[in-house]
């Protein structure tokens, strides 16, 4: 009996170890594909930024189009935004049966919205724009770093990424209670994208923010960025739900996003940021940055910085051509605060006060003349502008330094190794080690950091000697049953208490084994474990198929004698050299390939099997299908960039201006008539616009002709 028990125990431990290894491999596949997609987004954006940097518009019309292609809304003046998003002129029909809002908002408005969204009702566009307008007004008065105290509430609840999954937010409120004077919440960014109810989440959070401004705090995440929204679904969601007023809503939302605070401090001891830190993170700088200038953290850093010296000289009324080299060097390092050296003595407070007012007014007038802003369009003072005006001795940071600070806290991830290095996996931010964490904690007298940004199977995870806590609140993120969501509660002792959940109804019916948790000995459990695993391998096979041509070339490089076979070791090396996903291919091999008796792989038949699997779902020539699988996300993002009014259609003018941008980069001489002929040939249904299917079809036809 004892020997039998030992045998069962060994078998069980071996089974658990294999199960854990499969779970980790599945997780690696999901994350590697997700991060590769983020890399593609940043590369695509950098490509467009490069084109814009090196394109010389030939007319004011071209200049206006190009300037608005990637920076839609950034240069919109206050008065223009108010006029453009005029919600007061919108009439709500009597037939409208959804919730109604009146300002100032009351708790009943928030609960009514929750009930309406549970019933799948939609808030009228007038109320959406009114809510965004009031939210923007409130956010403009907030500091870059919010300060929360546990003295005024029993505990503070911190939630991570929600990513448009409204059911998770409902479950959090059901388990933990609604925001109230005794129930403080911090929502740590990434409210939108990927899920189907991102807009509803924003409406609920903004409503509670206005009802309880001292108890609800929102941090900006890397997805609160209109360039990221173009790729990951939020832009498309808004336009589908509000076909008439969608453009106005998007314009207001992207302006609200840039006013979201960047971080939250609890009791001056716990720092909450969306992504992470770097070895150059400076909370003092973060406190003073004018955050609203960074509509998109992805865009325009180099171009803005290159023009900085010219702008400073123009503001100071100097002409670069007339200035001496020494003067030019001085101007390049100049800063508005440098004028403080000419100030009268502080002893005469009245005289000093007059001098400050006069100097500030002169600078405002010069800036107005530079950007052609009239006095009637002067913006109200905000918290950040007041900080900048009162702190005359503050250092002057370059836009590049400010941009890097924000990029790092929104995009960075922790790593187990020491040091700080570029985050090449995501394509933005950095990887920071335990030593960097310790340095920041010691510098600012902090106990630990809370961040989000990464999906964790249990909904949370500690690292760096429990000094960094990752919290992720979107359950079933990759697939039903793939992960739990979680939130963390902090009391006056600042000891974290976690609550985990899975919001999807289907997830509750899965066995523990199906959720890749503790193994269960049942036939159903043994079959069910593959649910999440199969989803991961299906996505991986699509990725492999999308690179069929490159894989074939890589395999042939190892097949020197042209036998059509390669070793499994060479197969793994070749696949990683093409896909660069950092996956353990030798471990994944049994799920992907069937080897011959001699341990080799007939690679062409394997590639044909991949193509057959995809063709069974898409009746398209395999060569074209491969290209479309590889480029569809990029093509859709390019389409949405060109479609700057988010109408779902590219007008002839939008196509015309974008093609001039491409042809300038590729040194292709093409007349206006030639461009017009090209755009008409793509407009298959001759309605005067190009929809996405026509755009994709044209891409396929070009590839086929090549």
UniProtKB/TrEMBL annotation:
<dbReference type="Pfam" id="PF08321">
    <property type="entry name" value="PPP5"/>
</dbReference>
<dbReference type="GO" id="GO:0051879">
    <property type="term" value="F:Hsp90 protein binding"/>
</dbReference>
<keyword id="KW-0464">Manganese</keyword>
<dbReference type="InterPro" id="IPR006186">
    <property type="entry name" value="Ser/Thr-sp_prot-phosphatase"/>
</dbReference>
<feature type="domain" description="EF-hand">
    <location>
        <begin position="546"/>
        <end position="581"/>
    </location>
</feature>
<feature type="domain" description="EF-hand">
    <location>
        <begin position="670"/>
        <end position="705"/>
    </location>
</feature>
<dbReference type="InterPro" id="IPR018247">
    <property type="entry name" value="EF_Hand_1_Ca_BS"/>
</dbReference>
<dbReference type="InterPro" id="IPR000048">
    <property type="entry name" value="IQ_motif_EF-hand-BS"/>
</dbReference>
<feature type="domain" description="EF-hand">
    <location>
        <begin position="630"/>
        <end position="665"/>
    </location>
</feature>
<dbReference type="GO" id="GO:0030145">
    <property type="term" value="F:manganese ion binding"/>
</dbReference>
<dbReference type="GO" id="GO:0005509">
    <property type="term" value="F:calcium ion binding"/>
</dbReference>
<dbReference type="Pfam" id="PF00149">
    <property type="entry name" value="Metallophos"/>
</dbReference>
<dbReference type="InterPro" id="IPR012008">
    <property type="entry name" value="Ser/Thr-Pase_EF-hand_contain"/>
</dbReference>
<dbReference type="GO" id="GO:0007601">
    <property type="term" value="P:visual perception"/>
</dbReference>
<keyword id="KW-0677">Repeat</keyword>
<keyword id="KW-0716">Sensory transduction</keyword>
<feature type="region of interest" description="Disordered">
    <location>
        <begin position="308"/>
        <end position="340"/>
    </location>
</feature>
<dbReference type="Pfam" id="PF13499">
    <property type="entry name" value="EF-hand_7"/>
</dbReference>
<keyword id="KW-0106">Calcium</keyword>
<keyword id="KW-0479">Metal-binding</keyword>
<dbReference type="GO" id="GO:0043409">
    <property type="term" value="P:negative regulation of MAPK cascade"/>
</dbReference>
<comment type="similarity">
    <text>Belongs to the PPP phosphatase family.</text>
</comment>
<comment type="function">
    <text>May play a role in phototransduction. May dephosphorylate photoactivated rhodopsin. May function as a calcium sensing regulator of ionic currents, energy production or synaptic transmission.</text>
</comment>
<dbReference type="InterPro" id="IPR051134">
    <property type="entry name" value="PPP_phosphatase"/>
</dbReference>
<dbReference type="Pfam" id="PF00612">
    <property type="entry name" value="IQ"/>
</dbReference>
<dbReference type="GO" id="GO:0050906">
    <property type="term" value="P:detection of stimulus involved in sensory perception"/>
</dbReference>
<keyword id="KW-0378">Hydrolase</keyword>
<dbReference type="InterPro" id="IPR029052">
    <property type="entry name" value="Metallo-depent_PP-like"/>
</dbReference>
<dbReference type="InterPro" id="IPR011992">
    <property type="entry name" value="EF-hand-dom_pair"/>
</dbReference>
<keyword id="KW-0844">Vision</keyword>
<dbReference type="GO" id="GO:0004722">
    <property type="term" value="F:protein serine/threonine phosphatase activity"/>
</dbReference>
<dbReference type="InterPro" id="IPR002048">
    <property type="entry name" value="EF_hand_dom"/>
</dbReference>
<dbReference type="InterPro" id="IPR013235">
    <property type="entry name" value="PPP_dom"/>
</dbReference>
<protein>
    <recommendedName>
        <fullName>Serine/threonine-protein phosphatase</fullName>
        <ecNumber>3.1.3.16</ecNumber>
    </recommendedName>
</protein>
<keyword id="KW-0904">Protein phosphatase</keyword>
<dbReference type="GO" id="GO:0005506">
    <property type="term" value="F:iron ion binding"/>
</dbReference>
<dbReference type="InterPro" id="IPR004843">
    <property type="entry name" value="Calcineurin-like_PHP"/>
</dbReference>
């Amino acid at each position: 009996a004892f020997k039998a028990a030992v045998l069962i125990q060994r078998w069980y431990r071996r089974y658990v170890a294999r199960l854990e290894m499969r779970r980790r491999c599945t997780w690696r596949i999901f994350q590697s594909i997700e991060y590769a997609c983020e890399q593609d987004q940043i590369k695509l954006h950098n490509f467009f930024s490069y084109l814009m940097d090196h394109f010389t518009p030939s007319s004011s019309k071209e200049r206006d189009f190009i300037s608005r292609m990637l920076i839609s809304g950034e240069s919109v003046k206050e008065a223009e935004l108010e006029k453009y998003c005029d919600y007061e002129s919108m009439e709500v029909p009597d037939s409208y049966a959804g919730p109604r809002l009146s300002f100032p908002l009351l708790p009943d408005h928030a609960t009514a919205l929750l009930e309406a969204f549970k019933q799948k009702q939609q808030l009228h566009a007038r109320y959406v724009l009114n809510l965004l307008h009031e939210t923007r007004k409130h956010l403009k008065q907030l500091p870059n770093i919010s300060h929360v105290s546990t003295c005024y509430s029993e505990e503070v609840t911190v939630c991570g990424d929600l990513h448009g999954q409204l059911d998770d937010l409902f479950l959090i409120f059901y388990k933990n209670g609604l925001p109230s004077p005794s129930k403080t919440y911090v929502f740590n960014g990434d409210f939108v994208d990927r899920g189907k109810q991102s807009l509803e989440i924003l409406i609920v959070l903004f409503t509670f923010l206005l009802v309880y401004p001292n108890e609800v705090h929102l941090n900006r995440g890397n997805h609160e960025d209109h360039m990221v929204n173009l790729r990951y679904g939020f832009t498309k969601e808004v336009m589908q739900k509000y076909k008439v007023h969608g453009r106005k809503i998007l314009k207001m939302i992207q302006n609200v996003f840039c006013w979201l605070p960047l971080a939250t401090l609890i009791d001056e001891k716990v720092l909450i940021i969306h992504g992470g830190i770097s070895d150059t993170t400076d909370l003092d700088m973060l406190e003073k940055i004018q955050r609203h200038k960074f509509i998109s953290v992805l865009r325009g850093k180099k171009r803005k910085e290159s023009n900085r010296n010219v702008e400073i000289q123009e503001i100071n009324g100097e002409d670069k051509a007339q200035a001496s080299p020494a003067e030019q060097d001085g101007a390049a390092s100049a800063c508005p605060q440098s004028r403080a050296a000419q100030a009268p003595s502080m002893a005469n407070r009245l005289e000093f006060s007059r001098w400050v007012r006069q100097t500030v007014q002169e600078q405002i007038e010069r800036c107005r003349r530079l950007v052609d802003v009239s006095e009637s369009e002067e913006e109200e003072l905000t918290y950040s502008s007041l900080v900048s005006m009162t702190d005359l001795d503050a250092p002057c940071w370059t836009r590049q330094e400010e941009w890097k600070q924000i990029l790092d806290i929104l995009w960075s991830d922790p790593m187990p190794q020491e040091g700080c290095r570029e985050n090449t996996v995501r394509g933005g931010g950095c990887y920071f080690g335990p030593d960097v964490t310790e340095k920041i904690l010691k510098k600012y007298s902090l106990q630990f950091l809370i961040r989000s940004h990464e999906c964790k199977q249990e909904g949370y995870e500690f690292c760096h000697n429990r000094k960094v806590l990752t919290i992720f609140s979107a359950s079933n993120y990759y697939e039903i049953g793939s992960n739990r969501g979680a939130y963390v509660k902090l009391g006056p002792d600042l000891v974290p208490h976690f609550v985990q959940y899975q919001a999807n109804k289907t997830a509750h019916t899965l066995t523990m084994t199906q959720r890749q948790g503790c193994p269960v000995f049942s036939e159903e459990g043994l079959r069910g474990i593959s649910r999440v695993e199969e989803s991961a391998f299906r996505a991986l096979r699509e990725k492999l198929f999308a690179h069929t041509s490159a894989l074939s070339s890589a395999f042939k490089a190892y097949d020197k004698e042209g036998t059509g076979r390669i070793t499994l070791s060479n197969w793994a090396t070749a696949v990683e050299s093409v896909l660069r996903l950092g996956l353990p291919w030798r471990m994944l091999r049994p799920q992907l390939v069937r080897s011959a008796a001699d341990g080799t792989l007939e690679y062409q038949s394997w590639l044909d099997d991949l193509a057959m699997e995809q063709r069974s779902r898409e009746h398209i020539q395999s060569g074209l299908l491969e290209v479309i699988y590889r480029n569809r996300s990029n093509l859709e993002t390019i389409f949405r960039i060109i479609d700057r009014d988010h109408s779902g259609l590219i007008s002839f003018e939008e196509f015309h201006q974008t093609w001039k941008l491409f042809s300038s980069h590729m040194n292709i001489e093409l007349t206006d008539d030639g461009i017009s002929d090209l755009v008409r040939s793509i407009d298959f249904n001759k309605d005067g616009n190009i929809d996405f299917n026509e755009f994709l079809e044209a891409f396929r036809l070009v590839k086929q002709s090549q």
